[in-house]
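WARN no homologs supplied; continuing
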Amino acid sequence: MITLGLDVHESILSTGPRQRRDLLGRAHAAGLDHVVVGDHVSFHGGRGFDGMVSATAALTSNDDLLVLLGIYQLALRHPMTVARQLASISQLAPGRLILGVGVGGEDRSEMLNCGVDPSTRGRRLDESLHVLRALASGDAIDHSGEFFELKDAQVLPAPVPRIPIVVGGTSAAAVRRTARFGDGWLGIFCSARRFAEIREQIAEAAGQAGRELPSWYGLSVWCGIDAQASKARAMVAERMERLYHLPYEKFERLAPAGTPEQLGEWLLPYLAAGCEHFTLVATTSSWEAGVDHVAEVKRYLLEHAPA
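OK structure emitted
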């Protein structure tokens, strides 16, 4: 099964309620499967968007689309409060949220200003995932760890169905984290060859851990899309350089730009590598054009996918 969605976090927070409903309604009508919202507290000079707020806005503005929250900066939060937020969102929109988590750390000041030592973010994330999974059962738990102490902690009602957790990152630690805690894996800035390798590594690590093999494998792709390939490149280059403070050439090999057909062709090797869930972080001339272009990419993939 191939699913394809569109990153909408900037549009979600910068438009009014009617425009937000129009955007998500158009995405659903165009055949998109999900939308994605991001999360940062204060990224590179103060930019940010609260992922839980954005996810709630998307879920309550459309009754059909799935919402992937990715990547959520879980290491910057207390897992008890996150468990409550997830339980509340599940009551509003049961079965329509996927939680993506990762270690973050691209902006050290973001972590430091949240009171988190960047060198501990991996261990903190692992402990948070352990606590989240325990609390998701609805049972009262005790926990004594390196970062958190809980006594008779409980969050009710428990989410039904359980909110799936997908883990981002391409490191060996991310592979182990997916195998231990994840229901799936979400790649970014990753070649098709590397995607296939990581999927195999996760399967091996899950077997060693005695866990069921994660079943969800996805890819987020920064890209520019336009009827004119040169315009698509200029748009995504400007956006990425403004956000990451690095030249676009640093990303270009894994952040393509072109027409919808060219983007679809670029994604085909990932299907062979075992990717089924694609999200385009698409820079386009307008949000309407973004929805329409991404829908064209999906049609291309469905038409050209290996039998």
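The longest helix spans residues 192-209.
OK
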